[in-house]
Amino acid sequence: MAKDRNAEADFKGPVRRILIAVLVFLLAAIFLIWRIDSPRVERFRAAFIDKVVPNMDWAMAPVTKLVDMVEGFQSYARIYEQNQELRRELQQMKAWKEAAVQLEQQNAKLLAQNQVRLDPKLTSVSGVVMADSGSPFRQSVLINVGSRDGIVDGWATMDGLGLVGRISGVGQTTSRVILLTDASSRIPVTIQPSGQKAMLVGDNSPAPPVEFVEAPEQVRPGDRVISSGDGGVFPAGLLVGQVELGTDQRLRVRLAADYERLSFLRVLRSHPAEQITEAGGLIPPPVAPAPEDLPATTPADTPSADTEPDTEPGNG
Questions:
Q1: Mind listing the pLDDT tens digit for each residue in 130-160?
Q2: pLDDT tens digits for 243-286?
Q3: What pairs with residue 265 in β-bridges?
Q4: Residue 154 maps to which CATH number?
Q5: d(CA 29, CA 35)
Q6: Count of domains for the chain
Q7: DSSP β-ladder status, 163-170 and 175-179
Q8: What is the pTM of this model?
Q9: Could you tell me if residue 42 is inside a domain?
Q10: C-alpha–C-alpha distance, residues 176 and 265, integer Å
Q11: CA–CA distance, 269 with 28 (Å, rounded to integer)
């Protein structure tokens, strides 16, 4: 027997209308009960709320979770906006830092240029960095000062911010500067504030390692590295850079000199230290021994006051 689809449709329609009518009646009854101003109805409402509302937490849980999720998304949005604002401020600070570094370099270079003299009594001579004619395996630069300017092999060079290298080869009008990053560079340094002595060893990398540290456990990233002056190679106290931990877990130095913008270099005159061989005025002379401490003398060694020398003529 075929199924009667029209009878099924007629059955759903009345049920739907009955349910709607019952729902409307219940809503109207609730509205009327809630609006009636009567002590009995008020007690009924209070009892209904006390019985039903505490048991409706399970129904309010999704709503509460939804509200918390909305507040969480709003907080995430605020955090994202703050993060974007911090990124913009960080970019501005990086730009200001770069500008400050460039101004500091320019100021140092201009101050160094003011000391360009041929007077050998000055402490430094500045020169312009020229194109390097060395090999790819040797990191060095050429400057336009040489023996005619009094340059001596082994003197230290700086760019106004930190130590760059040393003079290694002097010509009449030019000199070669071996950089601290060159594999042949070895300079003694001091790590502050621990005061550890070490050796800065070039390895053709931008951050050369420090070796032969007396107590590596006392060295921390960020410590200041200066020249120690040991061996008379460099003057003591020249800024070299800061300690950092390399990717190979070795202690390395982030050099203070800006190797990417080497345009002017200062050659520091290193005169040999004066040797003091005599005592100064602040050191008193040795104290003379007391008379009782003097050795006893014989009468033969000491001339007597009653004895007169035989100097008269004719007293043979």
A1: 876 555 666 888 998 998 988 888 899 988 7
A2: 998 888 889 999 988 888 888 888 988 766 556 566 656 556 66
A3: 127
A4: 2.40.10.340
A5: 10
A6: 2
A7: antiparallel
A8: 0.49
A9: yes
A10: 11
A11: 103
